[in-house]
Amino acid sequence: MMAQYLEIKGQYPGALLFYRMGDFYELFFDDAVAASEALDIALTKRGKHLDQDIAMCGVPVHSAEGYLLTLIRKGFRVAVCEQMEDPAEAKKRGSKSVVRREVVRLVTPGTLTEESLLEARRHNYLAAYAEVRDEAALAWVDISTGAFHVMPIAPVRLGPELARLMPSEVVVSEAKEADLAETVTESGASLTALARSAFDSGSAEKRLKALFDVGALDAFGAFGRAELSAMGAIVEWLEITQKGKLPILRAPVREGAARVMQIDAATRANLELTRSLSGRRQGSLLAAIDRTVTAGGARLLERRLSSPSRVLEVARERHDAVQFALEQGRIAGDLREALRRVPDLDRALSRLGLERGGPRDLTAVRNALTQAEAIAGSLSDVELPALLAGAVGDLQGHGELLDLLDRALVAEPPLLARDGGFIAEGFDDELDECRRLRDEGRGVIAGMQEEYQRETGIQSLKIKHNNVLGYFVEVTATHAEKMHGNDAFKHRQTTANQVRFTTVPLSEMETKILNAGGRAIEIEKRLYSSLSAAILDVSDRLFATARALAELDLAVALADLARGENWCRPKVDDSRALVIEGGRHPVVEQALKSEGEPFIANDCSLGTAEDIWLLTGPNMAGKSTFLRQNALIAVLAQMGSFVPARAAYVGMVSQLFSRVGASDDLARGRSTFMVEMVETAAILNQADDHALVILDEIGRGTATYDGLSIAWATLEHLHDVNGCRALFATHYHEMTGLSAKLERVENATVAVKEWEGDVIFLHEVRKGAADRSYGVQVAKLAGLPAAVVARAKVVLEALEKGEREGGNAKKALIDDLPLFAATPVQAPAPVVKESAIEAMLETIHPDEMTPREALQALYELKEALKT
């Protein structure tokens, strides 16, 4: 056995080998050591190899999926080795014969299909990147849904595209492994290197033709050599991991970079589109807006949010769909309730195609089609916008398949086909007979006994059973002659007082009864295969239905969001406008609402009279929130959603760039400032005149004048060279003078109010410039010790005075500053003059007042307030 294990393990050196041993998958040698540590299970030993103990651990087959998930998440790959014959068959070859085993599947992050291993509301992409001469392309597939896409890209765009797709695994040529490892791992994906032959574009074309059973790929699109290479590499890897059982893949869809808003990896992270900065879904824009009720709808929402459209007609069609659902509240409500009962059709089809499905996947298809037909019927007389009308058209035409599945399947089937019991009574006569025999064997024998009693006239005749003879007819010796005279009864055995016979029908019935249970299971397995084949024969139409259900779900979900949160339909066109009235940040607004606090809405106007807003104001006043909310409104508008504002006019944004916040990158030797400069350089080198750029505190990681000069030059470059729309937040108040020199720059500030030495944030953006940053007051709010705050005020006053009086005076003042004291001399408390209202309040005693007196006092206070 161990020789067989070592031989199979040698074929998969980079994977843990799950070696089937009866009811367990067992691991040996180094695999066992690694798995026991990763899974926190006991490590034991089994025998010796080269005089060394063989380390061993194992996991039960029935719960293997949970262990697989843990291993995959920890970066392992697993080769699943199954027993390919019954142990009894192996023994026929000799007592020491080893059961034949084969690896039936290589489990990797991008090739998961099991429901328990996947997130229902997220895609699980496997991607492949290829370069052929001066061309490059990226292909990606989700084998759990059949989605297959490809796009030509420039090599520099690989990182941003991986950030958009967030694949679990990326396949590259071994010749490019070293060059691409950093880019792939930064995206969070697992890297798989294949031989160069897997990327040969000629072989790739043949593989794709064979996969889709076509003579030419022209019907799918005009693919370049790099695109063919990337798609072919994916198919090659699927053949390796699935051991020839290829999933059902839809025809490849060719995407173009010009059709979607370009967003780089840093911007996606900064804006927290689909993941928060902590890496979780909670706290992201996606989590804040997701009101879908189906898994397919949730995946479609994430795709749309990750890839906002730049095609005007597409955005407007999606807005029309949301507008319809918003206006037709009753229809949308009924539709939403029907969609709640729709199972995950995409993934059920995928599991059936890979022969990893079960009876519940058959019923998932049936239930999905039942709801699809009902939805189509309910909307048949409704005038729908184009997008929804097309979706409803794809819901229909499954009557024959639905009728077959309705007749064939029970309402609540078991998980596994081998358990039986999922085929409905009355669908198959032979199956019904087997079940009757299995469940009512005694009754069938009793019926035959009565029949034989009538035929022979012997009322004492009995049909009995034992382990030697099986079923037999028994009469007393006095009736033996009568039985011998009937040719239908064959003598079996004579005892002292009884004579036993059998008949051909009784022997046949005995065989049927004894085999009825097993035969029923075999018939159900056969019917399962035929029903799966019937479903897979129309998989293309079923995938279209799944897409239609997701489209309907997303439209009504976005309408529900717009209704519940008071969002408006944006006006979109190809201009450079970004005019927002009463804009809000959807994530921050939800967080404040949960605390009972209101969100202060703000306006923004770019691309008309001015392209750039230079935003000043203190920390904590809301500058970063204002920057982000306008970027998110553009993303939402172009993905097809309504937006959090009173009104919005969005000219199509080609590229979205964000330089907000910073962290160092120690692994690559980059300081916080270096990271900031790299990201700023990318913006200045790439932004076109339809881009939207949001920049926050450029130049803060270096000396004051260095930072100011960098921020100054950056703003000038955005204005003069890039010519794009931008929101530029800064604490360098010196820059506010640029609004007089650059015609398309406007100053704006976040308003605050100072009260008795403290700062009150109003979170209101106004035209104009801030006169100061209020940094010391913010530090006080943060909880700095009073001594530090007082010292900071003294230093600040000295520096400001020195700045006014000139450089030498500034130096002299700093030299004259007293040293820091942990307990500084307390400044005299400001004398506050008592107001007339305070004096009146002192004379009021509420417990002693009548309601009329209290009301009168309130009127008097209001009058005093006016004066």
UniProtKB/TrEMBL annotation:
<dbReference type="GO" id="GO:0006298">
    <property type="term" value="P:mismatch repair"/>
</dbReference>
<dbReference type="GO" id="GO:0003684">
    <property type="term" value="F:damaged DNA binding"/>
</dbReference>
<dbReference type="InterPro" id="IPR007695">
    <property type="entry name" value="DNA_mismatch_repair_MutS-lik_N"/>
</dbReference>
<dbReference type="InterPro" id="IPR007696">
    <property type="entry name" value="DNA_mismatch_repair_MutS_core"/>
</dbReference>
<dbReference type="GO" id="GO:0005829">
    <property type="term" value="C:cytosol"/>
</dbReference>
<keyword id="KW-0234">DNA repair</keyword>
<dbReference type="InterPro" id="IPR045076">
    <property type="entry name" value="MutS"/>
</dbReference>
<dbReference type="GO" id="GO:0005524">
    <property type="term" value="F:ATP binding"/>
</dbReference>
<dbReference type="InterPro" id="IPR007861">
    <property type="entry name" value="DNA_mismatch_repair_MutS_clamp"/>
</dbReference>
<dbReference type="InterPro" id="IPR017261">
    <property type="entry name" value="DNA_mismatch_repair_MutS/MSH"/>
</dbReference>
<dbReference type="InterPro" id="IPR016151">
    <property type="entry name" value="DNA_mismatch_repair_MutS_N"/>
</dbReference>
<feature type="binding site">
    <location>
        <begin position="617"/>
        <end position="624"/>
    </location>
    <ligand>
        <name>ATP</name>
    </ligand>
</feature>
<dbReference type="GO" id="GO:0030983">
    <property type="term" value="F:mismatched DNA binding"/>
</dbReference>
<dbReference type="Pfam" id="PF05192">
    <property type="entry name" value="MutS_III"/>
</dbReference>
<dbReference type="GO" id="GO:0140664">
    <property type="term" value="F:ATP-dependent DNA damage sensor activity"/>
</dbReference>
<keyword id="KW-0547">Nucleotide-binding</keyword>
<feature type="domain" description="DNA mismatch repair proteins mutS family">
    <location>
        <begin position="691"/>
        <end position="707"/>
    </location>
</feature>
<keyword id="KW-0067">ATP-binding</keyword>
<dbReference type="InterPro" id="IPR036187">
    <property type="entry name" value="DNA_mismatch_repair_MutS_sf"/>
</dbReference>
<keyword id="KW-0238">DNA-binding</keyword>
<dbReference type="Pfam" id="PF01624">
    <property type="entry name" value="MutS_I"/>
</dbReference>
<dbReference type="InterPro" id="IPR000432">
    <property type="entry name" value="DNA_mismatch_repair_MutS_C"/>
</dbReference>
<comment type="similarity">
    <text>Belongs to the DNA mismatch repair MutS family.</text>
</comment>
<dbReference type="InterPro" id="IPR027417">
    <property type="entry name" value="P-loop_NTPase"/>
</dbReference>
<protein>
    <recommendedName>
        <fullName>DNA mismatch repair protein MutS</fullName>
    </recommendedName>
</protein>
<keyword id="KW-0227">DNA damage</keyword>
<dbReference type="InterPro" id="IPR007860">
    <property type="entry name" value="DNA_mmatch_repair_MutS_con_dom"/>
</dbReference>
<dbReference type="Pfam" id="PF00488">
    <property type="entry name" value="MutS_V"/>
</dbReference>
<dbReference type="Pfam" id="PF05188">
    <property type="entry name" value="MutS_II"/>
</dbReference>
<dbReference type="InterPro" id="IPR036678">
    <property type="entry name" value="MutS_con_dom_sf"/>
</dbReference>
<comment type="function">
    <text>This protein is involved in the repair of mismatches in DNA. It is possible that it carries out the mismatch recognition step. This protein has a weak ATPase activity.</text>
</comment>
<dbReference type="InterPro" id="IPR005748">
    <property type="entry name" value="DNA_mismatch_repair_MutS"/>
</dbReference>
<dbReference type="Pfam" id="PF05190">
    <property type="entry name" value="MutS_IV"/>
</dbReference>
